[in-house]
Design a protein that fits this description.
single chain, 2,3-Dihydroxybiphenyl 1,2-Dioxygenase, domain 1, 2 helices
Length: about 120
């Protein structure tokens, strides 16, 4: 069983080389607060209430290979991974982010989903 606690972030893709335009739109026009730091894949992170918006540069790709995804916080990442694997769902790993463990999987339609457990 997976115990979801909240949505942590949503990642959307922007074209390569368009970070300045993204900052103009999301930071200046929408007035979102940028979260400073060196983020995976050189992403730009913004805070929106108690969730984050991650903007990631991506070459044009098919929708099913895209990095677009929601990220859900879970109580126990190990329990969630074990549960999914016991039902034949493949778990993928990516870069480490300080203060959290994370893993990805795809639904039967190819949509990418991230699960996160924060260090406590």
């Amino acid at each position: 069983m997976i115990r979801f606690t909240k949505i942590d972030h949503v990642a959307i893709m922007i074209p390569m080389g368009q970070q300045a335009a993204a900052r103009q739109f999301y930071g200046t026009l929408l007035q979102l607060t940028e979260i400073p730091g060196q983020h995976p894949r050189n992403a730009i992170w913004y805070q929106i209430a108690d969730i984050q918006l991650h903007l990631v540069e991506e070459d044009k790709t098919t929708e099913l290979l895209s990095g677009r995804h929601p990220a859900f916080e879970v109580e126990s990442l190990e329990a969630a991974k074990s549960y999914l694997q016991s039902h034949g769902v493949e778990i993928a790993y990516t870069s480490k982010i300080e203060g959290r463990e994370r893993a990805f999987f795809r639904d039967p339609f190819g949509n990418r989903v991230e699960m996160i457990e924060f260090d406590r």
